[in-house]
């Protein structure tokens, strides 16, 4: 099978590139699909959600009910073939994480997601082992912050495309198996997570889909110290700091959520209304959204 992500196959790449740019969503309003019941999507709702994911690897859904719970999030994901929840150590027993400011839990407090601070651009689970890569997630907003907490979103395939257009060597460098290393994390019991070294861009051998691991953090990450890798990282940072129409800015309101193939995202700092603190449910999966395999 020919792959558009093969650097030695410019014909396949250019064909995929045309298809991608012609269909990519650049108007954030077009990313939003209203649904009635997340437990049982109608055929039309499912098709509308999937179409956006096929074109831009993401969709924002809006449900007009404030009674969505963790189980509903799971059943919503299952309608897109998402079943293998990543049971990370901060997830609840059911594998779904409540993302909220944690005042009392010392473990959680040490991690930025559970604070009101900004989170830089990243893909989820960039520190996971190769067999537990996060290929998709659902982020459902139960309560938004009193102020702030907006997200920026960018399709990782568009990031790949733009970097490859500017210099194919950037893709080569970022696809190296030793491109980035996340150092081990230690806690009072010793090493809680071993160091993870791996590529930024990789192609799933089973499906041919593009996967991306990235964090814009400057601490707790070591980039391969070679000129092309560092130039590629700088080009990527510049791209994400630009005002390209492919960078979506959105604020999830109660009942709204993001379903995506682990696209790049960030979060602005926020301040909570103490009577109604920000709460999101996050479900991370090892598989991609069914029916979104790279088409061209
Ligand atoms: Fe994230």
General description of the model:
The protein is an alpha+beta fold and 296 residues long. The strands form six sheets. The protein has a six-stranded mixed beta sheet. A four-stranded antiparallel beta sheet has the order 4-17-7-15. Strands 11-8-14 form a three-stranded antiparallel beta sheet. Helices cover 25% and strands 25% of the residues. The model has no long low-confidence stretch (mean pLDDT 92). It contains seven helices and 19 strands. Helix 6 packs across helix 7 (227-240). Helix 2 links the parallel strand 1 (32-35) and strand 2. It binds fe (ii) ion (FE2). Residues 122, 124, 265 line the site of fe (ii) ion.
Distance between the termini: 13 Å
Number of strands: 19
The overall average pLDDT, rounded, is 92
What binds here, in terms of ligands, is: fe (ii) ion
Q: Tell me the structural class.
A: alpha+beta
* Largest β-sheet summary: 6 strands, mixed
- Portion of residues in beta strands equals 25-35%
Radius of gyration: 19 Å
Adjacency order of strands in the biggest sheet? 1-2-16-5-19-3
Q: Which oligomeric state applies?
A: single chain
How many helical stretches?
Answer: 7
Helix content: 10-25%
Unreliable segments of 5+ consecutive residues: none
């Amino acid at each position: 099978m020919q792959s558009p992500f093969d650097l030695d196959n410019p014909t396949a790449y250019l064909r995929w590139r045309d298809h991608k740019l012609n269909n990519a969503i650049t108007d954030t309003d077009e990313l939003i699909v209203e649904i009635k019941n997340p437990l049982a999507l109608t055929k039309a709702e499912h098709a509308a959600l999937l179409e956006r994911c096929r074109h831009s690897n993401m969709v924002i859904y809006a449900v007009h009910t404030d009674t969505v719970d963790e189980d509903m999030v799971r059943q919503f994901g299952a309608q897109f073939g998402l079943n293998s929840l990543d049971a990370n150590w901060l997830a609840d027993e059911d594998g779904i994480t409540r993302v909220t400011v944690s005042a009392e839990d010392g473990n959680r407090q040490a991690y930025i997601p559970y604070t009101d601070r900004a989170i830089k651009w990243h893909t989820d689970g960039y520190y996971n082992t190769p067999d537990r890569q996060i290929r998709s997630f659902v982020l459902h907003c139960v309560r938004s912050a009193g102020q702030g907490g907006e997200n920026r979103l960018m399709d990782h395939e568009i990031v790949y495309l733009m970097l490859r257009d500017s210099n194919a060597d950037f893709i080569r460098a970022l696809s190296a198996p030793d491109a980035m290393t996340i150092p081990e994390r230690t806690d009072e019991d010793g090493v809680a997570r071993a160091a993870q070294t791996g590529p930024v861009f990789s192609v799933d051998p089973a499906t041919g889909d593009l996967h991306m691991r990235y964090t814009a953090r400057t601490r707790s990450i070591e980039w391969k110290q070679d000129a092309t890798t560092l130039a590629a990282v700088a080009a990527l940072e510049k791209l994400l700091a630009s005002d390209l129409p492919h960078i979506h800015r959105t604020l999830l309101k109660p009942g709204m959520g993001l379903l995506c193939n682990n696209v790049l995202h960030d979060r602005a700092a926020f301040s909570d209304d103490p009577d109604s603190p920000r709460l999101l449910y996050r479900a991370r999966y090892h598989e991609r959204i069914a029916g979104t395999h790279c088409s061209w």
